[in-house]
Design a protein that fits this description.
Helices cover about 35% and strands about 25% of the residues. It is of the alpha+beta class and about 290 residues long. It folds into two domains: about 150 residues, 2-Layer Sandwich (Fructose-1,6-Bisphosphatase, Chain A, domain 1), CATH 3.30.540; about 110 residues, 3-Layer(aba) Sandwich (D-Maltodextrin-Binding Protein, domain 2), CATH 3.40.190. About 45% of the residues are buried.
C-alpha cells in the first residue's frame, strides 16, 4: 500500500492540499496576529511554541492519517507531550514526520522565513517530503528516486559551488547548542567557509537544494527538523552524512554533527572540518 501511495501523483497532490489547508486555517490567520497568551516556552526562553504549532499539528494528524489508512504521525508537539511516540519511527506502520511550524521564533517575530515540514517514512526510510513556506507561497516536493521540484517553479538542482568561492554554511543557532557542540561547529571557522546561524532548518535545506547556500551543519537530530530537508537535498543532487561517515538516520542514534551539502565533495569537506584533525574524511551519501 505504501509503495502505491508514493507512486500516485493524485495521492501526493492530496498531501499538498492537506498541507495548504492546515496553513490556511491554522497558521496564516495567526501570522503577525499572535497574542502574548498564545506563545509559551517549552524547554527554555529560546524554545517557543504557539497555538499555531499545536493546532496545525492536530489538523495535519487528522488529515494525513486519513489519506493513508494505518499510518501514524510523529510530530514535534506530540512528542513533546509524549516522548514515547518516537518509537513509531522504528515500527512497521508508515509514519508522517511533521514539524507544523519550523522556525517558530521567526513566526513569533512576524518574519516570513518559517516552514511547515512533512515527510512520509516507512521503516526508517524517507519516501516523500513537502517543504512549505506559507508566508512566501513556496512549496517544494521530493519523492525518493524521482527528483525534487518547486510546485509551479520547476525541478530543483543543487549544482556545485563555484570554484574558489567562499562556502556559505547554515549551522545550528548558538542558542540551541551545548559547549561541546559549539566547539565542533567552531571548526568551520576557517578560510573559505562562512558559517551563519540557521533560523529555520527547513528553509536552509531548501536553500541548499536551490544552490543558494552550499551546506548546512547541524548538531541536533530531531527527525521533524531534518527528514523532509534531507530527502529534498538528496533528490536535488546533493549529499549528506554524519561525522561517523554514516547516513543520517531519522529514527535516531546518529553521531553528530552532520551535514547536507550541494554535492559530495562539499559534504566531505564540511565533515572533515567537523570531525577535527586526525579523524580522517568521512563519507557522504547522495
Amino acid at each position: 500500500m505504501i509503495d502505491d501511495f508514493v507512486a500516485s501523483a493524485d495521492a501526493l497532490d492530496r498531501v499538498e492540499d492537506a498541507l495548504r489547508k492546515a496553513a490556511a486555517e491554522e497558521v496564516m490567520p495567526r501570522f503577525r496576529q499572535l497574542g502574548a497568551h498564545e506563545i509559551t516556552q517549552k524547554d527554555g526562553p529560546h524554545d517557543l511554541v504557539t497555538v499555531a504549532d499545536q493546532t496545525a499539528e492536530l489538523h495535519l494528524e487528522r488529515s494525513l492519517t486519513a489519506l493513508l489508512p494505518g499510518s501514524v504521525l510523529v510530530g514535534e508537539e506530540g512528542v513533546h507531550a509524549d516522548p514515547g511516540r518516537l518509537a513509531a519511527l522504528r515500527g512497521d506502520a508508515p509514519v508522517w514526520i511533521v514539524d507544523p511550524v519550523d522556525g517558530t521564533r521567526q513566526f513569533v517575530h512576524g518574519e516570513p522565513g518559517f516552514c511547515m515540514l512533512v515527510a512520509l517514512a516507512h521503516r526508517g526510510e524517507v519516501l516523500a517530503s513537502w517543504t512549505y513556506l506559507p508566508a512566501k507561497d513556496v512549496l517544494a516536493v521530493a519523492r525518493r528516486g524521482a527528483g525534487a521540484r518547486v510546485v509551479g517553479g520547476g525541478e530543483l538542482h543543487a549544482g556545485v559551488p563555484e570554484p574558489g568561492r567562499e562556502l556559505v554554511v547554515g549551522i545550528s543557532h548558538h542558542d540551541f547548542t551545548t559547549e561541546a557542540e559549539k566547539r565542533a561547529l567552531a571548526r568551520l571557522d576557517v578560510p573559505g567557509v562562512r558559517a551563519r546561524a540557521c533560523g529555520s532548518a527547513g528553509h536552509d535545506y531548501l536553500s541548499v537544494a536551490r544552490g543558494e547556500i552550499d551546506a548546512v551543519a547541524f548538531s541536533w537530530e530531531k527527525p521533524w527538523d531534518h527528514a523532509a530537508g534531507l530527502l529534498l537535498v538528496a533528490e536535488a543532487g546533493g549529499a549528506s552524512g554524519t561525522v561517523a561517515g554514516e547516513p543520517f538516520r531519522v529514527a535516531g542514534g546518529n553521531a553528530l554533527p552532520f551535514t547536507a551539502a550541494r554535492d559530495g565533495e562539499t559534504a566531505r569537506h564540511i565533515l572533515a572540518l567537523l570531525a577535527g584533525p586526525g579523524r580522517g574524511v568521512p563519507g557522504a551519501a547522495g
